[in-house]
Design goal:
7 helices, alpha+beta, five-stranded mixed β-sheet, 17 strands, four-stranded antiparallel β-sheet, Nuclear Transport Factor 2, Chain: A, rod-shaped, single chain, 3 domains, about 35% strand
């Protein structure tokens, strides 16, 4: 009787077993649901966005991002140059990002990266995450970086006025004919060229949408680098300087200086026209004007001398034509009066006549 009393009723035994089984099943289901939800949460785009932001923006690894996204379309500025520029404008800035997706397309998520300057938000980039072909353990779609855009200023233009036939380069990249905006532009000296001499012509190239001032060079047809200069009146407007002819300078400096002295002396009635004949070509408009000039502006003086005499800027236009610049000061000495100084700064144009160079034109500088 006592053994029968201690026995648990079958109903309670079955109930306990059912509870144990139900608890075990519930626990198993909870583990499955937990794993399922954890897997679902792990593939949410916000986590991939965090990774992208940390990997590229916080670390400043813009170069990898640019290469990953094939962003740089400029043939004149490398990926490294673009990355360096983005680094420079974000240096010291606190970057942040936020989602700007509309929510209409759950397969795409877009973000804006920015920093704050005063009360203004400065956007520097956007990136887009899209569903990839890869799936999670539970079959959820995974996101990956699919698109990237940089917002930066690229409004720098460069113009190069290159001597026709020469080859211009920007950051080491040769400019082809598609960048030509003007061709056969005459040099100012061409107005003084004799018949049959073409003179110097230029080709003007222009490149737009650069992020920074580039390295510019121009080479002649043989590949020798030519001297260029940045125009003072127009930023980033380069022009090729004329090729200085040192051989002409060595051979004809004394000749043109003596010509200038003879001209100045004649204008002060200190010499005759015949003294100019070895230097100036007869029959030219210049010679006619010299011969017909009345020395009405002659200043009374007892003697004269020259100082600060210089010949420079020797440029050849063809095998028989060149120009040069001559500067001097004629000092007219007067008794009991202060010396009078008359300056000359002229460009002489010379051509070969019967085996000898003669001046056929001149301009005042």
């Amino acid at each position: 009787m006592q053994n029968d009393a201690k026995k648990m009723p079958k109903f309670y035994l079955v109930l306990i077993i059912c509870w144990v089984v139900a608890l075990a099943v519930l626990t198993a289901v909870l583990f499955v649901v937990r794993d399922y939800l954890a897997d679902y949460e792990s593939v949410q785009p916000k986590y991939v966005a965090d990774e992208v932001f940390e990997k590229y923006f916080v670390s400043g690894d813009y170069l990898s991002l640019i290469k990953h996204s094939s962003l740089n379309e400029s043939k004149f500025e490398s990926d490294e140059m673009l990355a360096e520029y983005i680094s420079s404008i974000t240096e010291g800035k606190e970057l942040s990002y936020h989602n700007i997706s509309s929510g209409m397309d759950t397969d795409v998520s877009k973000y804006i990266v920015k920093y704050t300057e005063g009360e203004k938000d400065i956007k520097i980039a956007s990136f887009t995450l899209s569903v990839s072909d890869e799936k999670s353990e539970k079959g959820f779609k995974k996101y990956e970086l699919s698109d990237f855009e940089l917002f930066y200023r690229s409004d720098i233009s460069v113009r190069i006025k290159a001597i026709k036939g020469s080859v211009p380069y920007i950051n080491g990249v040769m400019l082809d004919s598609s960048y030509i905006t003007e061709d056969n532009v005459p040099h100012e000296t061409n107005a003084h060229m004799p018949e049959g001499v073409e003179g110097i012509k230029f080709t003007i190239y222009e490149v737009d949408s650069l992020i920074s001032a580039p390295n510019v060079k121009v080479c002649d047809a043989e590949g020798n680098e030519m001297e260029i200069e940045l125009a003072k009146s127009d930023d980033l407007y380069y022009y090729t300087k004329l090729v200085y002819d040192e051989v002409l300078e060595a051979e004809y400096s004394d000749f043109v200086i003596e010509a200038a002295k003879s001209f100045a002396s004649y204008m002060q009635n200190d010499t005759t026209l015949q003294k100019l004949n070895p230097y100036f070509e007869k029959g030219t408009e210049l010679y006619k004007s010299i011969r017909s000039t009345l020395q009405w502006a002659v200043i009374d003086h007892d003697s004269y001398d020259f100082e600060d005499v210089e010949a420079s800027n020797f440029y050849r236009y063809d095998e028989n034509t060149f120009s040069c610049r001559v500067k001097l000061t004629q000092v007219l000495k007067r008794k009991r009066l202060e010396d009078f100084r008359d300056t000359m700064d002229a460009t002489f144009y010379l051509r070969m006549v019967d085996g000898k160079y003669l001046i056929y034109d001149r301009t005042n500088n």
